Write a sequence for this structure.
């Protein structure tokens, strides 16, 4: 009987090899399925169509802001329809609705009208002890057919233009209130709701984030809202997690994608697919796992996080 590498237990298997993110793309590698194509590296860095300008400063406070608890922060994730992954990689960033649609866009959702969804990009933070977070995501953005973009939480320290909440804000920017919202003038989302980004203090933001990543239970109300965009081609994107064969195969249709060629394990809750996609001058792992399996476990087995569960 031929021996099959067991991807679900890499520490005990000498045959397991996580995706090599530094290996150049193989242009001769065929896709998992679909018609032949000409693979090539994506060229991220398309300028935004509609720029929001500089984010407002945070509201001043006499209280000293606590340091961000990066020791407890495992990942940031952004769940998205797989049809939008390739455009995001080609643009080199995740974009707000306003950056994509501009002042004349159709902002029909309450979240768009209230300023959070229209002017920001949402992520969700996972703590290192929150192993019951499902691979398909938790809360907003969770769906077995979505792709979970796994981001380096260090981006929070490198870019101050984000806000954080531990409650359901109904699309309002964290720190703003219903009273703030009632006094907004008419106009497009940038004209109306930009001042809402000046309502949260650094102390409140950092404390909300630290509460989110603490403990062992994932937090249902958990959002970080990033002004206008999140760059992807500077090391922020560390992996893509899929929980359906269709979504994984769709990722492998991205130009320059490389499936690993390893046969998936038959054991439950194991890795069912491995590959990489080019992002900038790096290769980013793509992992397929079962929807209800542990996201933390899938990211470790796929080589996206280290042995302590941190994306770095």
């Amino acid at each position: 009987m031929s021996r099959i590498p067991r991807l679900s237990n890499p520490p005990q298997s000498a045959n397991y090899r996580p995706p090599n993110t530094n290996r150049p793309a193989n242009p001769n590698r065929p896709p998992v399925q679909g018609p032949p194509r000409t693979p090539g590296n994506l060229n991220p860095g398309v300028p935004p169509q509609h720029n929001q300008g500089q984010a407002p400063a945070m509201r001043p406070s006499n209280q000293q802001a606590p340091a961000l608890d990066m020791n407890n922060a495992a990942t940031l994730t952004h769940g998205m329809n797989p049809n939008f992954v390739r455009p995001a990689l080609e643009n080199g960033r995740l974009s707000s609705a306003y950056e994509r649609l501009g002042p004349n866009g159709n902002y029909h959702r309450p979240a768009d009208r209230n300023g959070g969804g229209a002017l920001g990009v949402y992520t969700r933070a996972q703590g290192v002890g929150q192993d019951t977070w499902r691979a398909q995501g938790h809360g907003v953005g969770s769906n077995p057919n979505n792709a979970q973009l796994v981001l380096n939480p260090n981006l929070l320290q490198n870019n101050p233009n984000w806000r954080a909440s531990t409650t359901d804000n109904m699309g309002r920017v964290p720190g703003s209130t219903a009273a703030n919202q009632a006094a907004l003038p008419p106009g497009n989302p940038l004209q109306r709701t930009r001042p809402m980004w000046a309502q949260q203090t650094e102390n409140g933001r950092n404390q909300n984030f630290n509460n989110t990543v603490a403990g062992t239970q994932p937090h249902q109300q958990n959002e970080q809202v990033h002004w206008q965009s999140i760059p992807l081609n500077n090391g922020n994107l560390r992996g893509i997690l899929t929980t359906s064969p269709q979504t994984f195969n769709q990722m492998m249709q991205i130009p320059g994608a490389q499936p690993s060629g390893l046969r998936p394990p038959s054991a439950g809750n194991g890795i069912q697919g491995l590959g990489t996609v080019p992002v900038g001058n790096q290769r980013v792992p793509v992992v397929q796992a079962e929807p209800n399996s542990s996201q933390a476990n899938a990211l470790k087995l796929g080589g996206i996080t280290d042995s302590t569960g941190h994306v770095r």
About this structure: The radius of gyration is 20 Å.
